[in-house]
Structures are given as structure tokens and as C-alpha cells.
Write a structure and sequence with these properties.
CATH class: Alpha Beta
Shape: globular
Largest sheet: 3 strands, antiparallel
Number of domains: 1
Number of strands: 3
Distance between the termini: 17 Å
């Protein structure tokens, strides 16, 4: 069985000063502090969330 791809998402910029929706997206990804990194499965839902806050996060694939 093929290994599932994961994404490492790091919060590189503060969501302060951005819209409530963008702050909620950051929270939904599980990011609370700057430079915090979380891992999520590579799904279309997660990709969409990353796309909406791409200016706040850095993503690496594994």
C-alpha cells in the first residue's frame, strides 16, 4: 500500500491584523504560536486552507 503524503505547515507570520476568517483558518489547522509546525495529510481540504493563508504559512511536503 502506498504511503500517504503529509504536509508540514509552519506559521511564519502573525495573523494579527488579518480577517477573522483567516484567523479561524490558522486556528483550524492547529497553529497557535509563531514558528509552530504541524503535520496534516495532503488532502484537497487542507490544500484549500493553505491556499487561503499562504501569505502566513510555509509548507513543505514529505
Amino acid at each position: 500500500m502506498a504511503k500517504k503524503k503529509t504536509l508540514k505547515i509552519t506559521l511564519t507570520k502573525s495573523p494579527i491584523g488579518y480577517t477573522v476568517r483567516q484567523k479561524a483558518t490558522v486556528a483550524a489547522l492547529g497553529l497557535k504560536k509563531l514558528q509552530q509546525t504541524v503535520e496534516h495529510a495532503d488532502t484537497p481540504v487542507i490544500r484549500g486552507m493553505i491556499n487561503k493563508i499562504s501569505h502566513l504559512v510555509e509548507v513543505s511536503e514529505e
